[in-house]
């Protein structure tokens, strides 16, 4: 009788609310309550799922009062606390200057209202295969910093996601931050998203990083979302591009490889065939733009 | 104050138990769990076993009744079976979940054509019409056939024939305020209520029919309405449910649907058209055959009248010397359909405007010329609400709209369809249409259409205007006040629009059919004339003049209407002085109550010219420039009239490219599960820049309308889908016969074209 | 649990349940019905209020979260009978049809113009895309925001002129 359990007027489940002010307390709560607890960051995913009765946690742990989880600093690259608001990232000068791919991706997530509430960590831990920030961070070779009772561990962004809604986080662990390495000189990046309207979850999205040297692709990373159970990179296309000049033919061939390397499904937003076909144009556009931008640096 | 904002002391919050099955019979229901929590519960076993039609715009011989307040035999996922009320919404939710129900699940059908197949289980074995049980065959709730002339001869004599099957989408109104009601039971056995409605009087009438409460004891109060677009022409299901709860509890009850419940509450009519049209070399239409299947969902709201309206819109677009129409309204186990802005006109206009472009191309005649040779216009007969409501057209700006619009968009420079080869392909398309202004006619028909108004003058010269008409955002009340002020001759601020209710107003059928200004304003005009007469009578006595020679002018400085004898110095008096003097002399209040039945329903006309750009590698269609022309007679409020055009266009763009509610063929649930996450509508970012949207009004005057005015609300939407679809054809050389036209469909069609 | 916050300039202390939403606290307990329920899942913006000056969705915010913070609703915008520039502009430009989305739009606009006093049309459309309207097609709303922006800039220039001796 699911239709009679959903009620978006209210939160139709009861829970205990906790708002720890430091990591140690947060971890203790997680250890104690484990699978019955959920972390509350922005609330834009968690609360919706609760209203839809998809999850019914007995404990909610608000992490927004924990200072160690907030803020953007530069330290061998970019370091963002997991509870940093998307709007903060969007407006950050260092992101605009040195990590425009991340800025481009964050800017198209939801609305201003959503970005004033949602956090980068929340977006990642929600683990939607279409998540825009996830796709950008995978393309940027970011790392997830995780803390648990056994200590700290670092997981490459691509390995952080296991499936729709699933990450490698254990019930007693917490994502504390994300670090993004600087991009070398001569890098161009781009992010493109297709949605049904300008305010939508991605039907398909792409993040591309091209490191050029001497007119030839030295390194590249191409990540796509909404075409597999998690955001993915297409290694075959990346390997193909390395060492080549960025001609239309080369870009076209890479696009075909991307189309062949993704595993899209048909859902309410689009057909699998559509995603496969559109991925070609998206790849071509992304590589072309990234290529142009690399020349500007 | 909106109905969903109303809060009363001691108020209970209600929740509805909805069927999780598309077809079932309740084997047992046990509300003891809910009652043990302290909630009040009602089930189908105790609500009145009175079948009704929630929409009372038609006369009894055209009103098919197959609804119950609550049912034990649900026919669609979401149909109400029981309801609870408790101190808070949270408690009501828990009480709801404590109700135990056992179902025997039955077979359901989700497609109109499938539903009609012999052997398919019937949703209703009979439907009540007046006091007769009408047998239902093949799930056809009602049908209509009309023939004029000889179509065999007509097609035989045609040089070109286009025959197509068109399938529209099942759009959801997504009016921003969900269906809500607050009911306050009275000690005398009566009820006072606020609800999301387009007609307080029909709400009262229906509740009287269902519950038997005398109408004088039912008071439906006007509230602001957060959008409707036709979804509250009928009394919404939440209303009688809340009444049942309030009467049982003896306390006020609020029932406000969540958005997901609202998506399961009402939806537009999905239509399948088999349209065959023939024309001769000289560009004249010769014959037309329309087979229309209306997917009406699980219950009838206004299916029979709609069958008549669809044929009426069809034959009122272009002249068809020979025509045949077969319309069937078919039951399916889905959310019941109701009128949605245009009431079938957006659907049929999309089909016709697509066909007209095809014919024009086949005949090698410019699409605009072709339309000008055939459109129903000045002096022609127009079917305002089906075959029984007809008028002669006395004002028409179609030619002006088409010629001026063509110039503004650069019609002559548009690409030739299908010739572009690049990635981004631009196209310009046009569509024209109309809608009725009310359902007025010279003789009574099966459609009730009249308005009532009351106007009285206060002792200080200001006026109180009392009407049952609702304003759901179209600026109707603003227009009425202007009409009154203009007619009498008082400053606009002196006309006070009273927030009224059924006890203090005379009957008004509904705010729909774009009749707010034409009919409602017509009643305001009529009553203003009467009041003016009486003002002049009193003035004549005080001024020692003849009433028929006196005039009234608004004086902003004095803040009053001033009655004066033209040409005679000093022979003048303010209305305030008249009425305060009248009070001392015990002459009585100056007031008038009038009803108005408009004798015609003049069409208002619109035309859209739309530019799109399609990315042939992603299938994404982007909006370019839009030029919109409208003939609405005298434009009483230019800013709000333009607002209707802007809104109608956005809705039409969305209709063509985005909207649909699809069903899971196994569970009968909505694929989007009721969440607007997957019912996308355009945001401010998706609409063209201001400079790219031009609106103009044709210079016309409607002799039967108040100060020459007609309606605009629905004409603003009707031709948009046709214009957009034609623009996409111009860009790609590909036609689509199913809405919405999505990137997936565009890319697929482009692929097939390339292969083929 | 008890929370204390500033609401439209006044300090308030209320008792809230952990699962209570800010939207319902405002509408049901505090009788401020300007913020609306439109969808409950953050898609329509009708529930927008300002939290520490930033537009957020009250339907997805726990009441507990506003403890120690500042909330402004539409009821806090006008000063007595004096509507502010944004409200006036919305009325004049015909940006209000059914009115249900209007409080959300006005609050988002207030935040926009504070952040960006001279926004381009594109910037306006982008900033407002989280507020949904089914009636207007947004044209008159965009016009209203432009008008309000221009008037506020004029007023600011006026004030600074007056302040310069």
Structure described in brief:
By secondary structure, chain A is of the alpha+beta class. Chain A is built from twelve helices and 14 strands. The longest helix of chain A has 25 residues, at 272-296.
Describe this structure in words.
The complex is a heterotrimer of chains A (297), B (756) and C (165). Chain A is α+β, with helices and mostly antiparallel strands and 297 residues long. Chain A folds into three domains: 13-62, Uridine Diphospho-n-acetylenolpyruvylglucosamine Reductase, domain 2 (2-Layer Sandwich); 72-180, 2-Layer Sandwich (Uridine Diphospho-n-acetylenolpyruvylglucosamine Reductase, domain 3); 188-294, 2-Layer Sandwich (Enolase-like, domain 1). Chain A has helices spanning 23-33, 46-51, 86-91, 93-98, 100-107, 112-117, 120-126, 132-139, 157-160, 235-241, 248-261, 272-296; strands at 16-18, 37-40, 59-62, 72-74, 78-81, 143-148, 151-156, 161-163, 166-167, 174-180, 187-194, 204-213, 216-225, 232-233. In chain A, strands 4-5-10-6-7 form a five-stranded antiparallel β-sheet. In chain A, strands 11-12-13-14 form a four-stranded antiparallel β-sheet, with helices on both faces. The longest helix of chain A has 25 residues, at 272-296. Chain B has 756 residues and is an alpha+beta fold. In chain B, the strands form eight sheets. Chain B has a seven-stranded mixed β-sheet. In chain B, a hairpin with a 6-residue loop joins β18 (381-383) and β19. In chain B, α15 (638-657) packs across α16 (720-732). The mean pLDDT of chain C is 96. Chain C is an alpha+beta fold and 165 residues long. The N and C termini of chain C lie far apart (53 Å). Chain C has a five-stranded mixed β-sheet with strand order 2-1-5-3-4, with helices on one face. Chain C contains five helices and five strands; from the N terminus they run ββαβββαααα. Chains in contact: A-B, A-C, B-C. At the B-C interface, α15 of B face α1, α4 and α5 of C.
């Amino acid at each position: 009788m699911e239709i009679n359990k959903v009620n978006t007027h209210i939160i139709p489940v009861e829970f205990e609310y906790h708002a720890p002010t430091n990591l140690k307390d947060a971890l203790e709560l997680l250890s104690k309550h484990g699978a019955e607890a959920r972390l509350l960051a922005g609330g834009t995913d968690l609360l919706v799922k609760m209203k839809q009765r998809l999850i019914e946690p007995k404990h909610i742990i608000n992490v927004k009062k924990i200072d160690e989880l907030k803020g953007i600093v530069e330290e061998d690259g970019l370091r963002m606390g997991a509870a940093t608001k998307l709007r903060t990232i969007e407006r950050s000068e260092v992101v605009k200057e040195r990590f425009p791919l991340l800025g481009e991706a964050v800017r198209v997530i939801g609305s201003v209202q959503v970005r004033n509430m949602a956090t980068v960590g929340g977006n990642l831990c929600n683990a939607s295969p279409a998540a825009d920030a996830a796709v950008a961070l995978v393309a940027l070779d970011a790392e997830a910093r995780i803390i648990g009772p056994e200590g700290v561990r670092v997981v490459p962004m691509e390995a952080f996601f296991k499936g729709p809604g699933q990450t490698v986080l254990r019930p007693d662990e917490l994502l504390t931050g994300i670090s993004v390495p600087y991009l070398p000189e001569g890098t161009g990046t781009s992010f493109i998203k297709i949605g049904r309207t300008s305010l939508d979850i991605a039907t398909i999205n792409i993040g591309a990083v091209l490191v050029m040297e001497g007119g030839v692709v030295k390194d590249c990373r191409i990540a796509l979302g909404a075409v597999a159970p998690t955001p993915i990179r297409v290694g075959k296309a990346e390997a193909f591009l390395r060492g080549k000049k960025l001609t239309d033919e080369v870009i076209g061939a890479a696009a075909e490889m991307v189309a062949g390397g993704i595993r899209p499904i048909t859902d309410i937003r689009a057909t699998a065939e559509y995603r496969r076909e559109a991925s070609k144009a998206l790849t071509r556009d992304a590589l072309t733009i990234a290529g142009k931008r690399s020349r500007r640096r | 104050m909106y109905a969903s904002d109303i809060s009363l002391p001691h108020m209970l919050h209600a929740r509805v138990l909805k069927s999780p099955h598309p077809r079932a019979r309740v084997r047992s229901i046990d509300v003891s769990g809910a009652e043990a929590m302290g909630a009040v519960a009602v089930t189908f076993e105790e609500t009145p076993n009175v079948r009704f039609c929630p929409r009372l715009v038609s006369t009894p011989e055209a009103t098919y009744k197959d609804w119950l307040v609550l049912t034990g035999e649900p026919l669609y996922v979401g149909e109400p079976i029981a309801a609870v009320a408790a101190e808070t919404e949270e408690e009501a939710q828990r009480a709801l979940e404590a109700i135990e129900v056992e179902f025997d699940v039955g077979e359901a059908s989700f497609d109109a054509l499938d539903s009609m197949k012999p052997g398919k289980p019937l949703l209703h074995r009979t439907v009540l019409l007046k006091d007769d049980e009408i047998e239902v065959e093949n799930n056809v709730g009602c049908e209509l056939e009309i023939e004029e002339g000889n179509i065999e001869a007509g097609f035989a004599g045609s040089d070109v024939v286009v025959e197509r099957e068109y399938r529209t989408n099942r759009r959801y109104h997504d009016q921003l305020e969900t269906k809500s009601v607050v009911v306050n039971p009275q000690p005398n056995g009566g009820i006072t209520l606020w609800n999301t409605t387009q007609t307080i009087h029909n709400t009262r009438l229906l509740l009287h029919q269902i519950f038997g409460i005398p109408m004088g004891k039912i008071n439906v109060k006007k509230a602001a309405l957060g959008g409707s677009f036709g979804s509250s022409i009928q009394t919404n299901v939440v209303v009688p449910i809340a009444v049942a709860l309030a009467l049982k509890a003896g306390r006020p009850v609020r029932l406000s649907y969540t958005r997901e419940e609202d998506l399961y509450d009402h939806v537009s009519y999905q239509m399948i058209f088999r349209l065959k049209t023939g024309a001769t070399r000289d560009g004249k239409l010769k014959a037309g055959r329309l087979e229309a299947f209306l997917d009406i969902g699980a219950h009838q709201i206004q299916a029979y009248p709609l069958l008549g309206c669809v044929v009426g819109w069809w034959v009122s677009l272009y002249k068809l010397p020979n025509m045949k129409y077969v319309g069937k309204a078919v039951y399916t186990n889905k959310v019941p359909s109701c009128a949605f802005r245009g009431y079938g006109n957006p659907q049929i206009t999309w089909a016709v405007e697509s066909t007209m472009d095809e014919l024009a191309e086949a005949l090698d005649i410019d699409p605009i010329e072709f339309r000008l040779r055939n459109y129903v216009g000045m002096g022609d007969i127009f079917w305002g609400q089906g075959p029984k409501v007809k008028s002669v057209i006395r004002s028409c700006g179609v030619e002006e709209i088409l010629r001026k619009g063509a110039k503004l968009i650069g019609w002559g420079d548009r690409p030739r369809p299908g010739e572009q080869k690049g990635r981004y392909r631009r196209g310009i398309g046009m569509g024209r249409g109309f809608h009725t202004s009310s359902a007025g006619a010279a003789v009574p028909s099966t459609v009730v259409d009249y308005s009532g108004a009351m106007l009285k003058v206060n002792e200080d010269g200001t006026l109180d205007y009392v009407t049952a008409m609702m304003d759901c955002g179209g600026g109707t009340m603003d227009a009425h006040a202007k009409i009154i002020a203009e007619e009498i001759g008082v400053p606009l601020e002196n006309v006070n629009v009273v927030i009224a209710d059924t006890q203090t107003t005379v009957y008004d059928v509904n705010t729909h059919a774009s009749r707010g200004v034409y009919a409602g304003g017509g009643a305001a005009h009529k009553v203003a004339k009467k009041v003016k007469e009486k003002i002049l009578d009193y003035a004549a006595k005080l001024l020692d003049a003849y009433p028929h020679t006196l005039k009234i002018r608004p004086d902003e400085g004095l803040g009053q209407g001033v009655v004066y004898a033209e040409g005679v110095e000093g022979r003048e008096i303010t209305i305030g002085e008249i009425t305060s003097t009248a009070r001392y002399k015990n002459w009585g209040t100056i007031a008038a109550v009038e009803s108005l039945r408009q004798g015609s329903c003049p069409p208002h006309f619109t035309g859209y010219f739309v530019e799109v750009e399609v990315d042939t590698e992603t299938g994404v269609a982007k909006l370019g420039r839009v030029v919109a022309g409208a003939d609405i007679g005298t434009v009483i409020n230019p800013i709000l009239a333009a607002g209707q055009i802007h809104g109608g266009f956005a809705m039409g763009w969305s209709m063509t490219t985005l909207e649909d509610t699809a069903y899971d063929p196994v569970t009968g649930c909505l694929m989007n599960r009721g969440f607007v996450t997957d019912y996308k509508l355009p945001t401010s970012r998706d609409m063209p820049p201001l400079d790219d949207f031009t609106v103009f009004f044709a210079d016309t005057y409607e002799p039967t309308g108040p100060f020459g005015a007609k309606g605009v609300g629905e004409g603003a939407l009707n031709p948009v889908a046709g214009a957009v679809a034609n623009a996409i054809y111009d860009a790609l050389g590909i036609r689509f016969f199913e809405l919405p036209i999505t990137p997936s469909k565009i890319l697929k069609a482009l692929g097939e074209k390339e292969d083929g | 649990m008890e929370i204390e916050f500033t609401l439209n300039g006044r300090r308030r202390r209320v008792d809230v349940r952990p699962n209570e939403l800010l939207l319902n606290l405002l509408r049901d307990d505090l009788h401020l019905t300007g913020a609306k329920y439109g969808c409950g899942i953050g898609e329509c913006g009708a529930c927008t209020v300002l939290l520490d000056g930033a537009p957020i969705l009250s339907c997805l915010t726990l009441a507990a979260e506003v403890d120690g913070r500042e909330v402004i609703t539409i009821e806090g915008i006008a000063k007595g009978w004096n509507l502010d520039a944004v409200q006036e502009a919305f009325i004049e430009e015909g940006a209000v049809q059914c009115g249900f989305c209007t409080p959300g739009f006005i609050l988002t606009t207030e935040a926009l113009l504070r952040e960006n006093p001279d926004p381009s049309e594109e910037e306006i459309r982008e900033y407002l895309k989280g507020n949904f309207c089914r009636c207007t097609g947004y044209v008159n709303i965009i016009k209203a925001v432009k008008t309000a922006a221009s008037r506020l800039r004029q007023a600011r220039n006026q004030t600074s002129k007056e302040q310069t001796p």
